[in-house]
């Protein structure tokens, strides 16, 4: 049986073939009423798009640069120069997003809005007046109000664990995978009592909850002790850390920051001779120092966020989706000299 064509649908609705093509791709250049009529006619005739032709045309469109005015907004709390010094992961999110956006012909404006008294409508008006169609945001300070926009005016993606006033699609590092991978690597090296330490439980509570849950689950799955395995005080101190080490007696410690390894050394522990150490978020200085652990792909998270956002723009999707998605990208394990290859036989019980 012959498949119906765009030309037949156009004749049925009384519009051009180009209008039918645009309507089936949800183009804003066609009115909602006409798009609905075209889709109803396509359904009646049994029209189905050829996936190979669709993929080819998508590739052709991707290779066309967007107009210079096609700009995305990246909303952060602080100026970009400050992020580069104090919150380098936000800078790396932005770098990955900007590079991918430029590949697709878009520009990206970084806007620091965290310390400015923008009302909901005011910030949305500013973005809209600049021709912003898509918004990327990363929000980390729990003391600031959640990011609030008139979401129906924009395509939006949140990067990381930042809070917003509306449920939108989100892309972040996979903390669950990181904790699980780290525990498995330490167990493979012969460790039996593995602990995790946090220095900022209240400052980044969503991150703490994500890591601690995954860490405890990994320990439980491998039959390792979970009671008192996580040191997460309301206020971190070296003395409190020392008491926890004496109480739990770990043969390996996992930290979210390499500062915890320096704390071990300052308390008189030899790493890795007495206690192995792994970090769940390695930076360049950590890699140069030979610290073992997980290195996140921050630039890849930013790039994937742009892929989601530009896809929404092409499909004319604005506002909050009915079913928001969460995309997590795993980091990569890096071997280092802070983990013993195998424990001495007398330490393995």
Structure description:
With 349 residues, the chain is α/β, with parallel strands linked by helices. The protein has 13 helices and twelve strands. It has a six-stranded parallel sheet with strand order 2-1-3-4-5-11, sandwiched between helices. The protein has a six-stranded mixed sheet with strand order 7-6-8-9-10-12, sandwiched between helices. Helix 1 (6-13) packs across helix 2 (17-24), helix 1 (6-13) crosses helix 3 and helix 8 (175-188) packs parallel to helix 9 (205-221). The chain starts with 5 loop residues before the first helix and ends in a 15-residue tail after the last strand.
* Poorly predicted sequence stretches spanning 5 or more consecutive residues: 344-349
Specify the overall morphology.
Answer: elongated
In terms of DSSP E residues, the strand content is: 15-25%
What is the third-level CATH name, the topology of the largest domain?
Rossmann fold
Task: Briefly characterize the structure.
With 349 residues, the protein is of the alpha/beta class. Helices cover 42% and strands 15% of the residues.
Question: Which features would summarize this protein structure in a list?
Answer:
349 residues; six-stranded mixed beta sheet; Rossmann fold; 434 Repressor (Amino-terminal Domain); alpha/beta; 13 helices; elongated; disordered C terminus; six-stranded parallel beta sheet; 15% strand
């Amino acid at each position: 049986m012959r498949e119906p064509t765009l030309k037949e649908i156009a004749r049925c609705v009384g519009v051009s073939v180009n209008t039918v093509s645009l309507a089936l791709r949800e183009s804003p250049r066609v009115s909602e009423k006409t798009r609905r009529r075209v889709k109803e006619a396509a359904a009646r005739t049994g029209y189905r798009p050829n996936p190979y032709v669709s993929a080819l045309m998508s590739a052709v469109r991707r290779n066309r640069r967007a107009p210079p005015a096609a700009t995305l907004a990246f909303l952060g709390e602080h100026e970009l120069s400050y992020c580069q010094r104090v919150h380098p992961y936000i800078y790396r999110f932005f770098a990955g997003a900007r590079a991918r956006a430029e590949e697709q012909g878009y520009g990206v404006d970084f806007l620091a809005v965290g310390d400015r008294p923008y009302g909901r409508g005011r910030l949305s008006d500013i973005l809209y007046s600049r021709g912003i169609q898509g918004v990327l945001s990363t929000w980390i300070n729990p003391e600031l109000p959640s990011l609030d926009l008139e979401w129906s005016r924009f395509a939006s993606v949140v990067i990381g664990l930042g809070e917003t006033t509306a449920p939108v699609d989100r892309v972040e590092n996979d903390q669950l995978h990181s904790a699980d991978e780290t525990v498995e690597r330490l167990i493979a090296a012969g460790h039996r009592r593995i602990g995790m330490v946090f220095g900022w439980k209240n400052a980044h509570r969503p991150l703490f909850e994500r890591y601690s849950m995954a860490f405890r689950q990994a320990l439980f799955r491998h039959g390792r002790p979970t009671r008192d395995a996580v040191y997460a005080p309301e206020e971190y101190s070296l003395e409190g850390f020392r008491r926890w080490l004496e109480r739990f007696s770990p043969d390996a410690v996992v930290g979210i920051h390499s500062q915890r390894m320096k704390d071990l050394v300052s308390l008189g522990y030899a790493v890795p001779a007495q206690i192995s150490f792994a970090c769940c978020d390695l930076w360049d200085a950590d890699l140069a120092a030979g610290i073992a652990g997980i290195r996140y792909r921050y630039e890849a998270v930013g790039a994937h966020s742009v892929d989601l956002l530009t896809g929404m723009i092409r499909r004319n999707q604005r506002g909050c989706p009915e079913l928001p998605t969460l995309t997590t990208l795993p980091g990569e394990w890096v071997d280092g000299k802070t983990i013993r290859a195998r424990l001495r036989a007398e330490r393995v019980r």
